[in-house]
Design goal:
Elements lengths: L11 H17 L1 H18 L6 E3 H19 L3 E8 L6 E3 L3 H11 L7 E11 L2 E11 L10 H4 L9 E6 L3 E9 L3
Helix pairs in contact: 1-2, 1-3, 2-3, 3-4
Length: 184
């Protein structure tokens, strides 16, 4: 978990920066600092889930929310997040820690720290035996160009889920859509 390999979910810089941000929050709002420290601890525990190969979608999204809450603390008003969940069943499992590395990589590759504003929207929809995860990042003044290589992050998806990934890039937005087919 603490190495610099691309398959590591939480890199050491994220952990260090989150702990520093929480430390400064202690003096301003002890309750919020306590809540964020708990979220960081839960993220670490989630990553250390030894032997766990799968997780349900809702559990995974909980940890994505924890990650984004910690990033929002560091970025203050420069990051707004919205997660929308439509008709997601707990019966469909994902490879353990699939979504969190995707979100972390998008934040890093599109440099959320180097722009004045980030609006991140995540939408999860289950329909017709498929789950679609759509992540859209709108940035000001502009989005860093180029598609993102997710081959390492998607390697844990079994071929039976027939993953389909699309990426769309405009001057001010990046959109990634991942669809998994559960018709098996």
């Amino acid at each position: 978990m603490f190495d610099s390999n691309t398959d590591s979910v939480l890199n050491p810089h994220f952990i260090f920066n989150s702990m520093n941000a929480i430390r400064y929050t202690i003096f301003e709002d002890q309750d919020k600092a306590s809540e964020l420290l708990s979220e960081l601890a839960q993220l670490l525990r989630f990553k250390l889930a030894d032997g766990k190969n799968q997780t349900d979608v809702l559990e995974e999204l909980t940890f994505v929310k924890h990650y984004l809450n910690l990033e929002a603390l560091r970025l203050e008003e420069r990051l707004e997040c919205d997660i929308k969940i439509d008709n997601i069943s707990k019966h469909n499992n994902l490879p353990h820690s699939l979504l969190l590395p995707l979100v972390e990589k998008i934040c890093h590759e599109k440099d959320i720290y180097g722009v004045s504003h980030n609006q991140l929207s995540i939408h999860c929809l289950e329909a017709d035996k498929k789950i679609t995860f759509t992540l859209e990042l709108v940035q000001a003044p502009h989005v860093k160009s180029g598609e993102i290589n997710f081959s390492t992050e998607l390697a844990s998806i079994t071929p039976s889920l027939t993953p389909a990934l699309t990426q769309t890039l405009t001057k001010n937005s990046y959109k990634m859509e991942l669809t998994l087919n559960y018709d098996h």
